[in-house]
Design a protein that fits this description.
single chain, mainly beta, Porin, 2 domains, 11-stranded mixed beta barrel, 13% helix, globular
């Protein structure tokens, strides 16, 4: 009986290992192929949440983007704020941040003039619901933006999906799939401003630390010329959750941006 059970566990382990290995090969192979093109940039972020008292937490995010694959950096941001979790399905958040964009260069990092110096304030509602092991996250955000060209309002909606691959929920040792699509609207014609899509495979090391690499495509609409342009990024996210208050693994934070 014990030998039979052990053989079954080893067989399941081998199957899961092959799936994870093949997923990694295809994912990193795709990133390598994109990296040979000038179209792929890099997008790195460190997301940190710290629980302070029951239902309350503070957060911080540091972010860095480059025009090429980890070279020719042109953008960075620092933001933070406070969040209140009504329950596992509803969370309210207020944040602020600084966002700096340099002229895009192909011959170095931050060696061109600043084109946008932005200070931002935003309010956010996040709602979650679940279908078996799948988590759906709906995020609604209202932004007040003070940028180099003046003041602007913006409205964002993001639908994010999380699917644990080797465990029923996202906990220590879980490999999971995450994908989202987000639309950006303004209060001025032509209203549509941007669309951002992401897909990646993450790993949860423990309750405090996770990593989520993936692919991002961002399309920006040019209201002046009725045109737009897109940009491909390899994105690497580090997710840190420091909270002494016991909670389910479903509460692990997603990407803040």
């Amino acid at each position: 009986m014990l030998k039979s059970a052990l053989r079954r566990k080893l067989a399941i382990f081998r199957i899961m290992f092959r799936r994870i290995f093949l997923t990694g090969i295809f994912f990193w192979g795709g990133c390598y192929l994109f990296a040979q093109s000038d179209r792929l940039g890099s997008w790195s972020s460190v997301n940190t949440r710290v629980g302070i008292v029951k239902n309350w937490e503070v957060f911080n995010e540091l972010q860095l983007r480059s025009q090429s694959f980890y070279s020719d950096f042109f953008y960075y941001e620092v933001k933070g704020g406070v969040a209140y979790k009504l329950n596992k399905n509803f969370q309210f958040l207020v944040g602020t941040g600084k966002y700096i964009t340099h002229s895009i260069a192909e011959d170095g990092s931050f060696n061109k003039p600043v084109t946008s110096d932005e200070t931002r304030l935003w309010q956010q509602l996040t709602m979650n619901h679940y279908l078996e092991r799948i988590k759906f996250e709906h995020r609604y955000r209202v932004e007040q933006r003070w940028i180099s060209t003046g003041y602007q309002n913006r409205f964002r909606y993001r639908l994010n999906v999380f699917v644990p691959l080797n465990k029923p929920s996202i906990e220590k040792g879980t490999v999971y799939f995450s994908a989202f699509n987000e639309i950006f609207l303004t209060n001025k014609a032509d209203y549509f401003s941007r669309n951002r899509a992401f897909g990646g495979v993450g790993y949860q090391f423990n309750k405090m630390l996770g990593i989520l690499p993936g692919y991002v495509y961002q399309f920006d609409f040019d209201n002046k010329n009725d045109t737009g342009h897109g940009k491909h990024f390899f994105q690497l996210n580090f997710l840190i959750n420091i909270d002494d208050i016991e909670e389910t693994a479903r509460g692990i934070p997603s990407i803040m941006d």
